[in-house]
Design goal:
Structural class: alpha/beta
Distance between the termini: 71 Å
CATH class of the largest domain: Alpha Beta
Largest sheet: 8 strands, parallel
Strand content: 5-15%
Radius of gyration: 28 Å
Keywords: Membrane, Transmembrane, Transmembrane helix
Transmembrane segments: 7-24, 30-50
Number of strands: 15
Number of helices: 20
Domain Glutamate synthase: 155-473
Pfam families: Glu_synthase (PF01645)
Shape: globular
CATH architecture of the largest domain: Alpha-Beta Barrel
Strand order of the largest sheet: 4-13-12-11-10-7-6-5
Number of domains: 2
CATH superfamily of the largest domain: Aldolase class I
GO molecular function, one term: glutamate synthase activity
CATH topology of the largest domain: TIM Barrel
Length: 550
């Protein structure tokens, strides 16, 4: 027997006899409490040893529950008492504090110097100029809309990324949308469709169409053009985004746990309440590159010329290049492409999909930018980057790598009060943000929280423009990948992207063959099917560059 099993039998026999004798020979409340304790211990321990399905309970009766109790608060204990300011993931204390401070409009400076290891491998930094400049107001917006767009949109450099009603509570959605109105940015609906809470405060909306086609599907789950047209032509809907995949779970449909599906959400999405709402992994309207582009054209016509784009997490490079080929063949181009990084967030996803699939945001944005340049399409298409943006430097890094604007989701939630408890998939969010529990969500004051969204957006953008100016630039459009510096394992600095062959205009379509992986990927790309075998063997870029220079 284990020690705790022996302790149990001692308490169950000798302990109970002593407690009974003590109570018979003494008066008062305490003797009764002692007997109640020993009897309670005996009953619970008996169940654990003889009936429990858990090995720990059988071997360590009663006290095993202490482990379960402490384990249930492990995240909070680690966050409050153990982790330092720079080691938590996905957002450390330094990043979260910065968001909270900017959202509350309080001091966001630090004292005594950096806590970061500036010689850490892959540490990113910038070189400043001795002649800082000021960014003019005319350079603080980005126009989204290609040659076929009739209603281009002037977007902020920083916007609210896709978060669905269902994943988030009604009050959280209202706060974000009212915050977007006050901040002058757009609010992406997420794949759950446009809800009354997105529309209530008249903030600019980007309507995301997921693979479930929520908000524009018929009773059989097929695309309904009439329903789409009725919503898409509303003045508040500024752009439409087709979701192909998400960085946190590429290759897997969106997941809304059944615990969070209310009658209202079931009605909005046209889904049952008795099981998890799992969207198809493949958008039924976008099964091939040409089918996707034809869907883009169809949505543009139905929406009366509004900007149409799609969102994806980049995987096999050949498949994205197949899209580029299809754009050239059909003459149909999206107005924007949202590139989601593998480090992006989600309300619920399988661990393996979150941890092991997809390109990270910076490398994916750099690839997409170069692919569009090489195909001669970059001037027609804007790139929106999405994936873990907390500070103005995060914003700058993505734009330097090729993005035109940036979306943020989790940090916008933090501006509402999210504490990174990681209970988004349980309906037990302690801040009332990622839950459908009315008792929790009603704690969110929409007016107050929308001010925090506005403050975070404003203060982050102000810092971003100041950071760009510190480099001697008068416009974010002048940022280039080589301006980002990365610390190598040898302790030296290198320009980000310098070891990867950048493409020039029409390099992929010209008769002059380019060397390296681009040529292989382009030759493998096809327009009638997304899938292509991943057969190119990647090798360290520094070796190929060394051989080329030698």
């Amino acid at each position: 027997m284990t020690i705790m099993q022996k302790v149990y039998w001692v308490i169950a026999t000798l302990g109970n006899l002593i407690a009974i004798n003590y109570m018979l020979n003494n008066t008062g409340l305490f003797p009764s409490l002692v007997l109640m304790f020993t009897l309670f211990y005996t009953v619970i321990g008996y169940f654990d040893i003889f009936h429990s399905r858990h090995t720990l309970n059988r071997l360590y009766p009663v006290v095993a529950y202490l482990r379960y109790f402490l384990e249930s608060y492990r995240v909070e204990i680690q966050q409050y008492f153990i982790a330092n300011d720079t080691e938590e993931t996905p957002f450390n204390r330094e990043q979260r504090s910065l968001v909270y401070q900017r959202a509350k409009n309080v001091r966001d400076t630090i004292a005594f110097g950096t806590q970061r290891d500036l010689l850490e491998d892959n540490y990113l930094s910038l070189w400043q100029s001795l002649h800082p400049k000021e960014i003019q107001d005319t350079a603080k917006r980005v126009q989204i809309g290609g040659p076929d767009c009739l209603k281009p949109y002037q977007a902020s450099y920083f916007n609210i990324s896709a978060m669905s009603f269902g994943s988030l509570s009604a009050n959280a959605i209202e706060s974000l949308n009212l915050g977007a109105l006050k901040a002058g940015c757009y609010h992406n609906t997420g794949e759950g469709g446009v809800s009354p809470y997105h529309l209530k405060h008249q903030g600019d909306i980007v309507w995301q169409l997921g693979s479930g086609l929520f908000g524009c599907r018929d009773e059989d789950g097929n695309f309904n053009p009439d329903t789409f047209r009725a919503m898409a032509t509303r003045p508040q809907i500024k752009m439409i985004e087709i979701k192909l995949s998400q960085g946190a779970k590429p290759g897997h449909g969106g997941v809304l746990p059944k615990a969070k599906i209310t009658d209202e959400i079931a009605a909005i999405r046209h889904v049952p309440k008795d099981r998890d709402c799992v969207s198809p992994a493949v958008n039924p309207e976008c099964t091939t590159p040409k089918a996707l582009l034809n869907f883009v054209k169809k949505l543009r016509e139905l929406s009366e010329g509004k900007p149409i784009g799609f969102k994806l997490c980049v995987g096999n490079p050949v498949e994205f290049l197949g899209l580029c080929k299809a754009m050239i063949e059909t003459g149909i181009t999206p107005d924007f492409i949202t590139v989601d990084g593998a480090e992006g967030g989600t309300g619920a996803a399988p661990v393996e999909f979150t941890n092991r699939l997809g390109m990270m945001c910076l490398e994916a944005v750099y690839f997409v930018h170069n692919a569009l340049v090489g195909a001669g399409l970059r001037d027609k298409i804007k790139i929106i980057a999405s994936g873990k943006t907390a500070s103005s430097f995060d914003l700058l890094a993505k734009i330097a790598m090729g993005a035109d604007t940036v979306n943020a989701a989790r940090t916008m939630m933090m501006s509402l009060g999210c504490i990174q408890s990681r209970h988004c998939n349980t309906n037990m969010c302690p801040t009332g943000i990622a839950t459908q529990d009315p008792a929790r969500s009603k704690a969110i004051n929409v007016s107050d929280k929308s001010e925090r969204v506005k403050n975070y957006h404003k203060n982050t953008l102000n810092s971003f423009f100041e950071l760009v100016g510190s480099m001697g630039l008068d416009s974010p459009e002048k940022l280039q990948p080589h301006m980002l510096k990365r610390r190598t394992p040898y302790g030296l600095l290198m320009s980000v992207g310098s070891l990867i062959e950048p493409l020039k205009e029409n390099d992929l379509t010209s008769e002059n063959q380019i060397s390296g992986p681009w040529n292989h990927w382009w030759s493998m790309a096809q327009t009638e099917d997304f899938y292509s075998e991943d057969v190119y063997i990647l090798s360290p870029a520094e070796l190929s560059r060394t051989h080329k220079q030698g």
